[in-house]
Amino acid sequence: MSLPTTVAGQLDALAAGHCQAADLIQAAREQGCRHADLNAWISEVEPTAPAAAENAKLGGIPYAHKDLFCTAGVRTTCGSKMLADFVPPYSATVHERLDRAGAVLMGKANMDEFGMGSSNEHSHFGAVLNPWDRQRVAGGSSGGSAALVAARVVPFATATDTGGSIRQPAAFCGVSGIKPTYGRVSRWGMVAYASSLDQGGVIAQTAEDCALVLQQMAGFDERDSTSLQAPVDDYRQALQQPLRGLRIGVAKCFFGSGVSDPVAVAVNAALAQMEAQGAVLVDIDLSHAELAIAAYYLIAPAEASSNLSRYDGVRYGYRCEQPRDLDDLYRRTRSEGFGAEVRKRILLGTYALSAGYYDAYYLRAQKVRRLIAGDYSRAFEGVDLIAGPTAPTVAFKLGEKLADPLAMYASDVNTVGVNLAGLPAMSIPCGFDQGLPIGLQLIGPALSEARLLAAAHQYQLHTGWHQQRPGTSGVPS
Ligand code: GLN
Known about the structure:
Helices cover about 35% and strands about 15% of the residues.
């Protein structure tokens, strides 16, 4: 018997008694073995099926955590040599909540070191291969999470998004991902990259599955000082909201330089589909969008340089061999424990924050951040959602952008502004180019997760892109 691969499908099968949690766990393990070459796991765990929790909201559903959610007793590496042997003494709030909901952790997913990257090639544990074409990247930084869902190893995975790390790998791997409003999901126990931008979310096959999982993850947490107090909507119930009358803003800037023709064509076709379902398309302007990359790549490294100062070889994590003195301990621990991209960003961030340059760089970037947030607020006075391509192109080749970091950064052009403004956004599959998936990005005002999920779900009710799986659309998996 073939088991369903979605969260909703597996919950139904469990409720109907067609299978048990142990069957789903077994199937996940077997599928994981079949796709071991993707290199999507950093650590696998021996799961125990929580018999009692099978009645809970996600009871018996297998999943993966991006390897930056702290899991008590289970190694949490953040994709870094620095934390390669780190076993946290406590669990992230997100983990506690999913645990309470009965979801079954299968392992920790590969990622770019500390979340810094757009291709998963900056992982100490090696790149993740794209399940659609193993010559290509899975996207980053949540490449492992996206690849595991795309390859139908697990029905959902947690992920985080500081500048696109949920949406871009979801787009590259042909799956659905939601980055919630900043503060909607607790950051407590999530290893920090850039704290004013980091936000946890979900990658799954469908918007409906994202709704089911986000429902369990979201909510106020007093241990996270930026956590939002607002009540959590009923996301699944909201899925029924039709597209009719929904005003969708289309900004030219999202179709600008670097966006390939096939991506633009597919996204325009998706917009036409939504229009056919009753949505109203409205041209909008986000005048400071072109500054988003520059502001993001100042602010994120600046915050990272501060956050990562804790890895000094003294308290935890990697420590260099036989330090001569304290300075030598700091210097060698940090140069040996961090990879090249992380070291570069610490240097950039430290420079941008240093006396004399602070006003010229960091402060200026903060002003631009405010302008970008203002553009979005104004736009949302006239529209309910904004849509465009998630990434300018389909997944690029492994190694293609490694020698050109600016090209790698530029590929984040359509995702980073959302983080600067703290807004929720999704990526859902909307077509193919050369057999590789294309992602449609939907952006909403603060706390509009229910609206976003509903729009994505209504689109998925009428289209089949999200049902395509690697190996079935003309490209060998
Ligand atoms: N690609 C972006 C970066 O490298 C975003 C990463 C993320 O969202 N964690 O910073």
